[in-house]
Amino acid sequence: MLFNSINFAIFLPVIFLLYWFLAKKNLKFQNILLLISSYFFYACWDYRFLFLLIFSTLLDYFTGIKMADTENQNIKKFWFWLSISINLGFLGVFKYYNFFVESLADALKNTGLQTNLWTLKIILPVGISFYTFHGLSYVIDIYKDRIKAEKNFIDYSLFVSFFPLLVAGPIERATHLLPQIKKERFFNYNNAVDGLRQILWGLFKKIVIADQCAKHANEIFNNSISHSGSDHVLGAIFFAFQIYGDFSGYSDIALGTARLFGIDLLKNFAFPYFSRDIAEFWRRWHISLSSWFRDYLYIPLGGSKGSIFMKVRNVFIIFIVSGFWHGANWTFIFWGLLNALYIMPSILFNTNRNNIDIVAKGKTLPSFKDFLSIAITFSLTVFAWIFFRAESLNDAFHYISQIFSSSLFSIPTIRPTSLFILLILFILIEWLGREKEYAIASLGLKWKPVFRYSFYYTIIILVFWFGGTESEFIYFQF
To answer: Which residue from 166, 222, 372, 419 has the highest number of Cβ atoms inside 10 Å of its Cβ?
Structure first.
Protein backbone atom coordinates (compact mmCIF):
# COMPACT_ATOMS: atom_id res chain seq x y z
CA MET A 1 0.00 0.00 0.00
CA LEU A 2 1.57 3.25 -1.14
CA PHE A 3 1.35 6.48 0.84
CA ASN A 4 0.41 8.23 -2.42
CA SER A 5 -2.47 5.87 -3.24
CA ILE A 6 -6.25 5.95 -2.96
CA ASN A 7 -6.07 2.83 -0.80
CA PHE A 8 -3.97 4.64 1.82
CA ALA A 9 -6.25 7.69 1.63
CA ILE A 10 -9.07 5.35 2.73
CA PHE A 11 -6.99 3.21 5.12
CA LEU A 12 -5.57 6.07 7.20
CA PRO A 13 -8.86 7.84 8.17
CA VAL A 14 -10.48 4.51 9.03
CA ILE A 15 -7.64 3.53 11.39
CA PHE A 16 -7.52 7.06 12.81
CA LEU A 17 -11.25 7.00 13.68
CA LEU A 18 -11.11 3.50 15.17
CA TYR A 19 -8.01 4.44 17.15
CA TRP A 20 -9.37 7.61 18.77
CA PHE A 21 -13.08 6.80 19.02
CA LEU A 22 -13.19 3.05 19.63
CA ALA A 23 -9.95 2.40 21.52
CA LYS A 24 -9.22 5.87 22.91
CA LYS A 25 -9.46 4.87 26.59
CA ASN A 26 -7.50 1.63 26.38
CA LEU A 27 -3.78 1.63 25.59
CA LYS A 28 -3.75 -2.13 25.01
CA PHE A 29 -6.53 -1.90 22.42
CA GLN A 30 -4.78 1.03 20.75
CA ASN A 31 -1.57 -0.97 20.37
CA ILE A 32 -3.39 -4.08 19.17
CA LEU A 33 -5.28 -2.01 16.60
CA LEU A 34 -2.05 -0.40 15.36
CA LEU A 35 -0.32 -3.79 15.16
CA ILE A 36 -3.16 -5.41 13.19
CA SER A 37 -3.28 -2.36 10.93
CA SER A 38 0.48 -2.56 10.41
CA TYR A 39 0.33 -6.25 9.46
CA PHE A 40 -2.54 -5.54 7.06
CA PHE A 41 -0.57 -2.63 5.59
CA TYR A 42 2.44 -4.88 5.03
CA ALA A 43 0.36 -7.82 3.72
CA CYS A 44 -0.97 -5.54 0.97
CA TRP A 45 2.49 -5.76 -0.63
CA ASP A 46 2.79 -9.54 -0.47
CA TYR A 47 1.14 -11.49 2.33
CA ARG A 48 3.76 -14.28 2.05
CA PHE A 49 6.51 -12.01 3.39
CA LEU A 50 4.38 -11.18 6.42
CA PHE A 51 5.50 -14.52 7.86
CA LEU A 52 9.14 -13.45 7.49
CA LEU A 53 8.40 -10.22 9.37
CA ILE A 54 6.64 -12.12 12.17
CA PHE A 55 9.46 -14.68 12.38
CA SER A 56 12.07 -11.91 12.65
CA THR A 57 9.97 -10.27 15.38
CA LEU A 58 9.62 -13.52 17.34
CA LEU A 59 13.34 -14.24 17.03
CA ASP A 60 14.46 -10.92 18.48
CA TYR A 61 11.69 -10.83 21.10
CA PHE A 62 12.66 -14.21 22.57
CA THR A 63 16.38 -13.49 22.14
CA GLY A 64 15.98 -10.34 24.23
CA ILE A 65 14.20 -12.25 26.99
CA LYS A 66 16.75 -15.09 26.95
CA MET A 67 19.65 -12.64 27.25
CA ALA A 68 17.92 -10.73 30.04
CA ASP A 69 17.08 -13.85 32.03
CA THR A 70 20.62 -15.21 32.24
CA GLU A 71 23.72 -14.05 34.07
CA ASN A 72 25.90 -16.52 32.20
CA GLN A 73 27.85 -14.48 29.67
CA ASN A 74 28.44 -17.47 27.41
CA ILE A 75 24.71 -18.19 27.16
CA LYS A 76 24.01 -14.50 26.64
CA LYS A 77 26.61 -14.38 23.89
CA PHE A 78 25.15 -17.51 22.27
CA TRP A 79 21.66 -15.98 21.97
CA PHE A 80 23.11 -12.69 20.80
CA TRP A 81 25.10 -14.21 17.96
CA LEU A 82 22.25 -16.55 17.04
CA SER A 83 19.94 -13.58 16.50
CA ILE A 84 22.59 -11.56 14.66
CA SER A 85 23.47 -14.51 12.40
CA ILE A 86 19.88 -15.36 11.50
CA ASN A 87 18.88 -11.75 10.88
CA LEU A 88 21.90 -11.04 8.69
CA GLY A 89 21.49 -14.47 7.11
CA PHE A 90 17.97 -13.68 5.93
CA LEU A 91 19.12 -10.28 4.69
CA GLY A 92 22.04 -11.90 2.90
CA VAL A 93 19.94 -14.55 1.18
CA PHE A 94 17.18 -12.26 -0.02
CA LYS A 95 19.28 -9.21 -0.84
CA TYR A 96 22.87 -10.25 -1.53
CA TYR A 97 23.07 -13.94 -2.46
CA ASN A 98 22.62 -13.42 -6.20
CA PHE A 99 25.06 -10.49 -6.16
CA PHE A 100 27.85 -12.58 -4.64
CA VAL A 101 27.14 -15.54 -6.91
CA GLU A 102 27.08 -13.43 -10.07
CA SER A 103 30.21 -11.51 -9.01
CA LEU A 104 32.02 -14.80 -8.38
CA ALA A 105 30.91 -16.11 -11.77
CA ASP A 106 32.18 -12.95 -13.49
CA ALA A 107 35.51 -13.18 -11.65
CA LEU A 108 35.96 -16.84 -12.66
CA LYS A 109 34.96 -16.04 -16.22
CA ASN A 110 37.71 -13.42 -16.41
CA THR A 111 40.22 -16.15 -15.49
CA GLY A 112 38.94 -18.38 -18.28
CA LEU A 113 36.76 -20.63 -16.12
CA GLN A 114 33.17 -21.13 -17.23
CA THR A 115 30.70 -21.74 -14.40
CA ASN A 116 27.02 -22.43 -14.04
CA LEU A 117 26.35 -21.22 -10.50
CA TRP A 118 22.86 -21.42 -9.06
CA THR A 119 20.99 -18.17 -8.41
CA LEU A 120 17.73 -17.63 -6.55
CA LYS A 121 14.55 -16.58 -8.35
CA ILE A 122 13.14 -14.51 -5.51
CA ILE A 123 11.99 -10.95 -4.98
CA LEU A 124 13.29 -8.70 -2.24
CA PRO A 125 10.80 -8.44 0.66
CA VAL A 126 9.85 -4.79 0.96
CA GLY A 127 11.29 -3.09 4.04
CA ILE A 128 13.51 -6.02 5.07
CA SER A 129 16.58 -3.80 5.53
CA PHE A 130 14.62 -1.44 7.78
CA TYR A 131 12.85 -3.88 10.10
CA THR A 132 15.99 -6.03 10.32
CA PHE A 133 17.92 -3.01 11.59
CA HIS A 134 15.14 -2.29 14.11
CA GLY A 135 15.63 -5.76 15.55
CA LEU A 136 19.42 -5.64 15.42
CA SER A 137 19.61 -2.38 17.36
CA TYR A 138 17.23 -3.79 19.98
CA VAL A 139 19.26 -6.99 20.46
CA ILE A 140 22.58 -5.12 20.53
CA ASP A 141 21.28 -2.64 23.12
CA ILE A 142 20.14 -5.46 25.40
CA TYR A 143 23.43 -7.28 24.97
CA LYS A 144 25.32 -4.10 25.89
CA ASP A 145 22.99 -3.60 28.91
CA ARG A 146 21.73 -0.30 27.56
CA ILE A 147 18.07 -1.31 27.81
CA LYS A 148 15.96 -4.01 29.42
CA ALA A 149 14.17 -6.68 27.40
CA GLU A 150 10.55 -5.94 26.51
CA LYS A 151 8.26 -8.62 27.95
CA ASN A 152 5.06 -7.45 26.26
CA PHE A 153 4.99 -9.12 22.84
CA ILE A 154 2.34 -6.76 21.40
CA ASP A 155 4.37 -3.70 22.36
CA TYR A 156 7.60 -5.12 20.95
CA SER A 157 5.88 -6.23 17.72
CA LEU A 158 4.47 -2.75 17.25
CA PHE A 159 7.93 -1.25 17.76
CA VAL A 160 9.22 -3.36 14.85
CA SER A 161 6.15 -3.13 12.61
CA PHE A 162 4.52 0.28 13.15
CA PHE A 163 3.16 0.88 9.65
CA PRO A 164 4.33 4.48 8.98
CA LEU A 165 7.99 3.42 9.29
CA LEU A 166 7.75 -0.25 8.33
CA VAL A 167 8.85 -0.26 4.70
CA ALA A 168 11.22 2.72 4.41
CA GLY A 169 12.02 4.01 7.86
CA PRO A 170 13.07 6.00 9.70
CA ILE A 171 15.07 3.29 11.46
CA GLU A 172 13.81 3.58 15.03
CA ARG A 173 15.52 2.79 18.33
CA ALA A 174 13.87 0.93 21.18
CA THR A 175 15.03 3.66 23.56
CA HIS A 176 13.00 6.22 21.61
CA LEU A 177 9.89 4.41 20.33
CA LEU A 178 9.12 1.71 22.91
CA PRO A 179 8.51 4.18 25.80
CA GLN A 180 5.97 5.98 23.60
CA ILE A 181 4.23 2.71 22.75
CA LYS A 182 3.95 1.83 26.44
CA LYS A 183 2.77 5.28 27.49
CA GLU A 184 -0.90 6.28 27.49
CA ARG A 185 -1.69 8.57 24.56
CA PHE A 186 -4.36 11.26 24.28
CA PHE A 187 -5.63 13.09 21.24
CA ASN A 188 -3.99 16.46 20.70
CA TYR A 189 -5.66 18.65 18.09
CA ASN A 190 -2.63 20.84 17.40
CA ASN A 191 -0.37 17.81 17.06
CA ALA A 192 -2.82 16.18 14.63
CA VAL A 193 -3.05 19.34 12.51
CA ASP A 194 0.75 19.55 12.46
CA GLY A 195 0.83 15.92 11.35
CA LEU A 196 -1.58 16.63 8.48
CA ARG A 197 0.51 19.61 7.45
CA GLN A 198 3.65 17.46 7.36
CA ILE A 199 1.83 14.75 5.36
CA LEU A 200 0.75 17.40 2.85
CA TRP A 201 4.32 18.64 2.44
CA GLY A 202 5.55 15.07 2.05
CA LEU A 203 3.00 14.41 -0.69
CA PHE A 204 4.07 17.62 -2.42
CA LYS A 205 7.71 16.52 -2.33
CA LYS A 206 6.87 13.09 -3.72
CA ILE A 207 4.21 13.85 -6.34
CA VAL A 208 5.02 17.39 -7.47
CA ILE A 209 8.81 17.41 -7.14
CA ALA A 210 10.17 13.85 -7.17
CA ASP A 211 7.81 12.28 -9.69
CA GLN A 212 8.09 15.20 -12.11
CA CYS A 213 11.89 15.22 -11.87
CA ALA A 214 11.85 11.44 -12.36
CA LYS A 215 10.26 11.77 -15.81
CA HIS A 216 13.16 13.82 -17.14
CA ALA A 217 15.88 12.07 -15.14
CA ASN A 218 14.71 8.68 -16.45
CA GLU A 219 14.57 9.95 -20.02
CA ILE A 220 18.16 11.18 -19.87
CA PHE A 221 19.65 8.27 -17.90
CA ASN A 222 17.84 5.64 -19.98
CA ASN A 223 18.71 7.26 -23.32
CA SER A 224 22.09 8.70 -22.49
CA ILE A 225 23.55 8.46 -25.98
CA SER A 226 20.78 10.65 -27.41
CA HIS A 227 21.43 13.64 -25.18
CA SER A 228 24.01 16.40 -24.93
CA GLY A 229 26.45 17.01 -22.11
CA SER A 230 24.27 19.85 -20.80
CA ASP A 231 21.27 17.48 -20.78
CA HIS A 232 23.33 15.05 -18.72
CA VAL A 233 24.08 17.75 -16.15
CA LEU A 234 20.37 18.49 -15.91
CA GLY A 235 19.60 14.78 -15.65
CA ALA A 236 21.92 14.40 -12.66
CA ILE A 237 20.40 17.48 -10.99
CA PHE A 238 16.88 16.21 -11.65
CA PHE A 239 17.77 12.88 -10.05
CA ALA A 240 19.26 14.68 -7.03
CA PHE A 241 15.92 16.41 -6.46
CA GLN A 242 14.02 13.23 -7.32
CA ILE A 243 15.71 11.13 -4.65
CA TYR A 244 15.52 13.91 -2.07
CA GLY A 245 11.87 14.68 -2.75
CA ASP A 246 11.03 10.98 -2.89
CA PHE A 247 12.77 9.82 0.27
CA SER A 248 12.37 12.89 2.46
CA GLY A 249 8.78 13.08 1.22
CA TYR A 250 8.21 9.52 2.44
CA SER A 251 9.78 10.41 5.78
CA ASP A 252 7.57 13.49 6.15
CA ILE A 253 4.46 11.40 5.45
CA ALA A 254 5.64 8.76 7.92
CA LEU A 255 6.36 11.29 10.68
CA GLY A 256 3.13 13.16 10.02
CA THR A 257 1.09 9.95 10.05
CA ALA A 258 2.67 8.85 13.34
CA ARG A 259 1.77 12.23 14.87
CA LEU A 260 -1.88 11.53 14.09
CA PHE A 261 -1.63 8.65 16.55
CA GLY A 262 0.28 10.58 19.21
CA ILE A 263 3.69 9.11 18.37
CA ASP A 264 6.86 11.00 17.41
CA LEU A 265 9.32 9.24 15.11
CA LEU A 266 12.98 10.10 14.65
CA LYS A 267 13.67 12.95 12.28
CA ASN A 268 15.25 11.57 9.11
CA PHE A 269 16.14 14.66 7.05
CA ALA A 270 17.29 18.14 8.01
CA PHE A 271 17.57 20.07 4.73
CA PRO A 272 20.74 18.26 3.55
CA TYR A 273 21.13 20.21 0.31
CA PHE A 274 21.91 23.33 2.35
CA SER A 275 24.98 21.63 3.85
CA ARG A 276 28.32 23.40 3.68
CA ASP A 277 30.49 20.27 3.60
CA ILE A 278 30.07 16.54 3.13
CA ALA A 279 30.28 15.81 6.86
CA GLU A 280 27.35 18.13 7.47
CA PHE A 281 25.47 16.54 4.57
CA TRP A 282 25.73 13.11 6.19
CA ARG A 283 24.49 14.50 9.49
CA ARG A 284 21.41 15.75 7.65
CA TRP A 285 20.71 13.01 5.09
CA HIS A 286 18.94 9.76 6.14
CA ILE A 287 19.78 10.64 9.73
CA SER A 288 18.40 7.44 11.25
CA LEU A 289 20.64 5.24 9.07
CA SER A 290 23.74 7.43 9.45
CA SER A 291 23.35 7.49 13.23
CA TRP A 292 22.69 3.72 13.26
CA PHE A 293 25.98 3.01 11.50
CA ARG A 294 27.74 5.55 13.72
CA ASP A 295 26.51 3.97 16.97
CA TYR A 296 26.61 0.28 16.05
CA LEU A 297 29.57 0.10 13.67
CA TYR A 298 31.73 3.22 13.51
CA ILE A 299 32.13 3.84 17.26
CA PRO A 300 32.67 0.12 18.12
CA LEU A 301 35.43 0.10 15.48
CA GLY A 302 37.12 2.97 17.31
CA GLY A 303 35.45 5.91 15.60
CA SER A 304 37.78 8.84 15.06
CA LYS A 305 40.08 7.78 17.87
CA GLY A 306 43.36 6.00 17.41
CA SER A 307 45.93 6.31 14.63
CA ILE A 308 45.44 7.96 11.26
CA PHE A 309 45.26 4.51 9.71
CA MET A 310 42.40 3.52 12.02
CA LYS A 311 40.49 6.71 11.28
CA VAL A 312 40.83 6.19 7.54
CA ARG A 313 39.94 2.50 7.84
CA ASN A 314 36.83 3.19 9.90
CA VAL A 315 35.56 5.87 7.54
CA PHE A 316 35.97 3.64 4.49
CA ILE A 317 34.30 0.71 6.27
CA ILE A 318 31.29 2.79 7.32
CA PHE A 319 30.71 4.27 3.87
CA ILE A 320 31.28 1.06 1.92
CA VAL A 321 28.91 -0.81 4.24
CA SER A 322 26.40 2.03 3.88
CA GLY A 323 26.64 1.77 0.11
CA PHE A 324 26.23 -1.99 0.26
CA TRP A 325 23.19 -1.60 2.55
CA HIS A 326 21.49 0.35 -0.22
CA GLY A 327 21.72 -2.42 -2.76
CA ALA A 328 23.54 -5.41 -4.19
CA ASN A 329 25.31 -3.58 -6.97
CA TRP A 330 28.86 -2.33 -7.47
CA THR A 331 27.39 1.12 -8.20
CA PHE A 332 26.28 1.50 -4.58
CA ILE A 333 29.64 0.36 -3.27
CA PHE A 334 31.42 2.85 -5.53
CA TRP A 335 28.97 5.55 -4.39
CA GLY A 336 29.90 4.78 -0.77
CA LEU A 337 33.60 4.78 -1.63
CA LEU A 338 33.29 8.14 -3.36
CA ASN A 339 31.58 9.69 -0.33
CA ALA A 340 34.34 8.28 1.88
CA LEU A 341 36.87 10.09 -0.30
CA TYR A 342 34.80 13.26 -0.12
CA ILE A 343 34.71 13.27 3.68
CA MET A 344 38.32 12.16 4.19
CA PRO A 345 39.94 15.65 4.29
CA SER A 346 37.59 16.77 7.07
CA ILE A 347 38.41 13.62 9.06
CA LEU A 348 42.17 13.95 8.61
CA PHE A 349 42.20 17.67 9.43
CA ASN A 350 39.57 17.37 12.16
CA THR A 351 37.18 19.83 10.53
CA ASN A 352 34.22 17.44 10.26
CA ARG A 353 32.30 19.30 12.98
CA ASN A 354 32.95 22.82 11.75
CA ASN A 355 29.39 23.24 10.49
CA ILE A 356 27.09 22.04 13.26
CA ASP A 357 24.60 24.89 13.40
CA ILE A 358 21.97 25.70 10.78
CA VAL A 359 23.36 27.70 7.89
CA ALA A 360 22.66 31.46 8.10
CA LYS A 361 20.62 30.93 11.26
CA GLY A 362 18.33 33.86 11.89
CA LYS A 363 19.28 35.47 8.59
CA THR A 364 17.45 35.79 5.29
CA LEU A 365 20.43 35.10 3.04
CA PRO A 366 23.66 33.14 3.48
CA SER A 367 27.06 34.77 3.32
CA PHE A 368 28.99 34.44 0.08
CA LYS A 369 31.28 31.89 1.77
CA ASP A 370 28.33 29.79 2.88
CA PHE A 371 26.69 30.05 -0.54
CA LEU A 372 29.89 28.90 -2.23
CA SER A 373 30.30 26.03 0.24
CA ILE A 374 26.71 24.93 -0.34
CA ALA A 375 27.17 25.05 -4.11
CA ILE A 376 30.37 22.97 -3.97
CA THR A 377 28.86 20.41 -1.58
CA PHE A 378 25.72 20.10 -3.70
CA SER A 379 27.80 19.66 -6.87
CA LEU A 380 29.85 16.87 -5.28
CA THR A 381 26.68 15.20 -4.06
CA VAL A 382 25.02 15.41 -7.50
CA PHE A 383 28.10 13.84 -9.08
CA ALA A 384 28.00 10.96 -6.59
CA TRP A 385 24.27 10.42 -7.25
CA ILE A 386 25.16 9.45 -10.83
CA PHE A 387 26.63 6.19 -9.52
CA PHE A 388 23.62 5.68 -7.25
CA ARG A 389 21.23 6.04 -10.20
CA ALA A 390 23.17 4.17 -12.90
CA GLU A 391 22.40 0.51 -13.62
CA SER A 392 26.09 -0.43 -13.71
CA LEU A 393 29.53 1.11 -13.29
CA ASN A 394 29.98 1.10 -17.06
CA ASP A 395 26.75 3.07 -17.44
CA ALA A 396 27.88 5.54 -14.78
CA PHE A 397 31.26 6.18 -16.38
CA HIS A 398 29.63 6.48 -19.80
CA TYR A 399 27.19 9.02 -18.38
CA ILE A 400 30.05 11.04 -16.90
CA SER A 401 31.99 10.89 -20.18
CA GLN A 402 28.93 12.34 -21.92
CA ILE A 403 28.89 15.24 -19.45
CA PHE A 404 32.47 16.16 -20.24
CA SER A 405 31.95 15.99 -23.97
CA SER A 406 32.08 18.88 -26.42
CA SER A 407 28.33 19.42 -25.98
CA LEU A 408 28.65 20.34 -22.30
CA PHE A 409 28.13 24.05 -23.02
CA SER A 410 25.37 23.58 -25.59
CA ILE A 411 21.81 24.67 -24.90
CA PRO A 412 19.93 21.76 -23.24
CA THR A 413 17.31 20.08 -25.41
CA ILE A 414 15.23 19.36 -22.32
CA ARG A 415 13.82 22.60 -20.93
CA PRO A 416 10.76 21.93 -18.75
CA THR A 417 9.94 25.52 -17.78
CA SER A 418 7.15 24.58 -15.37
CA LEU A 419 9.43 22.16 -13.52
CA PHE A 420 12.17 24.78 -13.23
CA ILE A 421 9.66 27.19 -11.67
CA LEU A 422 8.45 24.50 -9.25
CA LEU A 423 12.02 23.68 -8.23
CA ILE A 424 12.85 27.33 -7.60
CA LEU A 425 9.73 27.72 -5.43
CA PHE A 426 10.52 24.45 -3.66
CA ILE A 427 14.07 25.53 -2.85
CA LEU A 428 12.79 28.91 -1.63
CA ILE A 429 10.21 27.31 0.71
CA GLU A 430 12.77 24.81 2.01
CA TRP A 431 15.22 27.65 2.67
CA LEU A 432 12.64 29.73 4.53
CA GLY A 433 11.69 26.74 6.69
CA ARG A 434 15.18 25.31 7.24
CA GLU A 435 15.18 26.10 10.98
CA LYS A 436 12.01 24.06 11.59
CA GLU A 437 11.26 20.34 11.72
CA TYR A 438 10.01 20.50 8.13
CA ALA A 439 9.71 23.31 5.63
CA ILE A 440 6.11 24.44 6.16
CA ALA A 441 5.91 23.67 9.88
CA SER A 442 5.34 27.33 10.68
CA LEU A 443 5.34 28.96 7.25
CA GLY A 444 2.21 31.07 6.88
CA LEU A 445 0.94 30.60 10.44
CA LYS A 446 1.17 34.34 11.06
CA TRP A 447 -0.24 35.30 7.68
CA LYS A 448 -3.81 36.53 7.27
CA PRO A 449 -6.18 33.55 6.89
CA VAL A 450 -6.89 34.31 3.24
CA PHE A 451 -3.19 34.09 2.35
CA ARG A 452 -2.47 31.13 4.63
CA TYR A 453 -5.29 28.99 3.27
CA SER A 454 -4.52 30.07 -0.29
CA PHE A 455 -1.00 28.74 0.24
CA TYR A 456 -2.23 25.37 1.54
CA TYR A 457 -4.90 25.02 -1.14
CA THR A 458 -2.30 25.77 -3.80
CA ILE A 459 -0.20 22.87 -2.52
CA ILE A 460 -3.27 20.61 -2.44
CA ILE A 461 -4.25 21.58 -6.01
CA LEU A 462 -0.72 20.91 -7.26
CA VAL A 463 -0.71 17.49 -5.56
CA PHE A 464 -3.98 16.54 -7.27
CA TRP A 465 -2.96 18.15 -10.55
CA PHE A 466 0.27 16.19 -10.85
CA GLY A 467 -1.09 13.09 -9.12
CA GLY A 468 -2.94 10.23 -10.73
CA THR A 469 -0.21 7.62 -11.02
CA GLU A 470 0.77 5.63 -7.94
CA SER A 471 4.54 5.52 -8.39
CA GLU A 472 6.60 3.61 -5.82
CA PHE A 473 9.10 5.30 -3.53
CA ILE A 474 12.76 4.77 -4.45
CA TYR A 475 13.77 3.40 -1.06
CA PHE A 476 11.28 0.52 -1.23
CA GLN A 477 13.94 -1.38 -3.18
CA PHE A 478 16.36 -1.13 -0.26
So the answer is: 166
